[in-house]
Specification:
It contains 9 helices and 9 strands. Strands 3, 4, 5, 6, 7, 8 and 9 form a 7-stranded mixed beta sheet that branches. The chain has a two-stranded antiparallel ribbon with strand order 1-2. The relative contact order is 0.17.
Length: 276
């Protein structure tokens, strides 16, 4: 679709305005904009991870986020270097997005180029866990099932991965995980206490402050750019492990060292979600 969108004077208070399609596209969030499929396209494989939901922030959440950013915006590189950032993410063989906006011409709703088939119950996928820090990273862990409770979190993550990093770095290790229910169980708290692992205080509803979110985005882009994309769960698991191992450490280090600017941005928007 080319050209411009024209607004009738009676619809704009008597003013004639035109706005280019490029301008409208830039104003629409990339996560929800999907271009029409080419006419000669027969197979489309979409690799997606569970999108980060920007849940509503209460004034208390904003205050807590702002306080956290004030405490950490002046941290030096060596202070960020002792933090192990961790998170889980789900990758699937089909798109997980349920709100998709498509630019189309009038009376073309049922045109084949504007119809996208999707699984309403979600596609097959895997749940992964990883940890990053300056100069290092954990191995990528892939859960056998896509649901994790406190017991599995202790047995599959804290004991084999976090405790290993604690033994290598000593008491200076600062462990970061979010406020997911499986992370805050009594068993997890007791295990961290028994191993003398210090947990970083983390504000609620703050996935945008977690550096590893950009790593998940990088993995998704690398999967989509593969010449021979995985078509089965086994191939997806192998591809994720390969891309995780091949990810440049410089990328991870650059993301972690940008935490100061990220804190400043959060303070600039008064604790609201960071626009990125």
């Amino acid at each position: 679709m080319t050209g411009t969108f024209s607004y009738r004077p009676e619809e704009t208070g008597g003013r004639q305005r035109e706005k280019s399609l490029d301008t409208r596209n830039r104003q629409l969030d990339d996560r929800y904009r999907v271009l029409p499929w080419p006419q000669d396209c027969t197979v489309v494989v979409c690799f997606a991870r569970c999108p980060v939901r920007c849940v509503a922030l209460t004034p208390a959440h904003r205050r807590r986020r702002s306080l956290w950013c004030r405490e950490h915006r002046n941290w030096r590189d060596n202070e960020w270097g002792r933090v192990l950032f961790t998170d889980e993410s789900r990758f699937s063989l089909s798109s997980d997005y349920h709100r998709i906006l498509i630019w189309r011409e009038r009376e073309s709703r049922n045109h084949p180029s504007n119809i996208i088939e999707r699984n309403r119950h979600g596609g097959r996928g895997v749940l992964i866990w990883g940890g990053i820090m300056l100069g290092s990273r954990t191995d990528l862990h892939i859960f056998d099932a896509c649901s994790v409770n406190g017991t599995r979190y202790c047995n599959e993550i804290l004991l084999p991965y976090v405790r290993l990093f604690r033994g290598a770095m000593g008491l200076q290790l600062l462990f970061m995980d979010d406020n997911a229910p499986c992370h805050r169980t009594v068993a997890a708290e007791q295990l961290l206490g028994s191993e003398d692992i210090e947990r970083m205080d983390w504000p609620a509803r703050s996935p945008d402050l977690n550096t590893i979110e950009h790593v998940w985005d990088f993995l998704g882009r690398r999967l989509a750019a593969r010449t021979l994309p995985p078509l089965t769960i086994r191939e997806l698991r192998l591809a994720l492990q390969d891309e995780w191992a091949a990810m440049p450490q410089q990328l991870i280090d650059t993301l972690i060292l940008s935490k100061g600017r990220r804190c400043e941005t959060c303070l600039a928007v008064r604790g609201d979600h960071i626009p990125y």
